[in-house]
Amino acid sequence: MRTWLEGLFGKGRLRTADETPLESRAEILPEERAVLLVGILDDPAAREDEKYDAASYLEEFSGPFVESSLARIIRAEDFTSVLAQHAAESLGEIWARTGRVDVAFMAELRGPAKDEVFGILGARAPHLLPPGAF
C-alpha cells in the first residue's frame, strides 16, 4: 500500500511536464484510477477544473461503478452544469464504445446533458438511440 501511495504522489520518480499524478505510475490498476477519479468528483474541496478533468478522464473506463457515478453526478448537477456536460460526454463515449446503454437513465436525460449523450451516440453509435430521438 505504501508503494502505491508513494507512486500516486510521485515519490521516487519525476513526472514529465504533461503527465498527471494518475498517469505517472503504470502500476495503479484501472479500477483504482476510476475510484480515484470518482473521488475527485465527490470531493467538495476539489476545484472545478479538477472535477471537469476527472469527469472527462472517466470516459476511458466502464462498468457499473463508473457509469452509475457519472449518472449520479449528472443528476446532482440537474443535467445542466458544465460538470454535468463533461460527465454526460464521458457517459456517451462509454455507451458508444461498449455498445450498450442504460435505457432507464437515458429516458431521464434532459437539457445539455441529453444533448451531449445524444450527440455522441448520434455520431458514433446511432443504433443505440431510441427511435425518433432527434
Helicity range: 55-70%
Instruction: Output the helix-strand order.
Output: HHHHHHH
Q: What distance lies between the first and last C-alpha atoms, to the nearest angstrom?
A: 49 Å
Average pLDDT over all residues: 86
Q: Radius of gyration, rounded?
A: 16 Å
- The portion of residues forming beta strands comes to under 5%
Q: What structural class is derived from the secondary structure elements?
A: mainly alpha
Shape: globular
What is the helix tally? 7
Report the count of strand segments.
0
What does this structure look like?
With 134 residues, the chain is an all-alpha fold. Helix content is 60%, strand content 0%. It contains 7 helices and no strands. The relative contact order is 0.10.
Structural features:
134 residues, mainly alpha
Short description:
With 134 residues, the chain is mostly helical.
Topology of this structure?
Blueprint: H1 2-8, H2 30-42, H3 48-57, H4 64-76, H5 82-98, H6 103-108, H7 111-124
